[in-house]
Amino acid sequence: MPDWGEIFAAPEMQRLKPNPEFLAILPEVQAAGYRRVLDAGCGAGRHLLPLAQEGFEVWGVDRELTVLEALQKKLRASEIPASLVLADLGRLPFPGPSFQGVVSINVINHGYTRTFQNYCRELDRVLAPGGHLFIYVSPREFGDLVRRPQTRELEPGTLVEIDTPDGEMIHHFPTPEEIQGQFPGYRVLRGETIAAPIPFMGGVEMPQYVFWARK
């Protein structure tokens, strides 16, 4: 099974365009005057780069050193300003609240339920009151579709040995109610399950949950 460093190093992953659901909210974020944004699980910079190019003060966090090193080279070559930090999303190295916007795309479902909850807690902690949160994640329906005969359910919605390139890793597939429940008091601007192409699965369309809210 390839690790995430190998997955993101693949040419097709390096060429990926930004998530269109994320790009659709940028005008409103810009109109609100927000400047400081965290890309939590920035990977190859698919979303960090357009944020920086639009003039945001962007911080990217990832736990894969090789991924961050490749992204740093790309930033230097393009002379695009951004700050990169090697860290686990469950222990973000920022005082709270530090950011007016937080984005996390296809990251927070890697691990057990408690890991997912810790990730959500940290995203909430570093987001300033009035700030925007955008989460894009594989929901429970996705998990149901990638089960194999050998798939094991370790706890409700938490699977391992599934039919994905990283299927030997533990994944928690939350329900929409579970996601919204992690952010009480937020004003939900969009909470919707859509069918969308999955880049590292050859572009096959699968359920994805879009959660956009204001703290």
Can you tell me about this structure?
This protein has a single domain, classed as Rossmann fold (3-Layer(aba) Sandwich), CATH 3.40.50.150. The protein is built from nine helices and ten strands. It is α/β, with parallel strands linked by helices and 215 residues long. The model has no long low-confidence stretch (mean pLDDT 91).
Strand order of the largest sheet: 3-2-1-4-5-10-9
The dominant shape is: globular
The helical percent reads: 25-40%
Q: What letter string, H or E per element, gives the SSE order? A: HHHHEHEHEEHEHEEEHEE
* CATH architecture label name: 3-Layer(aba) Sandwich
Please give the CATH class.
Alpha Beta
Work out the number of β strands: 10
Number of helices: 9
Instruction: Name the poorly predicted regions.
Output: none
Structural class: alpha/beta
What would the average pLDDT be, to the nearest integer? 91
Task: Provide the β-strand percentage band.
Answer: 25-35%
- The CATH superfamily appears as Vaccinia Virus protein VP39
Q: What number of domains?
A: 1
Q: What profile does the largest beta sheet have?
A: 7 strands, mixed
Radius of gyration: 16 Å
Distance between the termini: 38 Å
**What is the name of the CATH topology?**
Rossmann fold
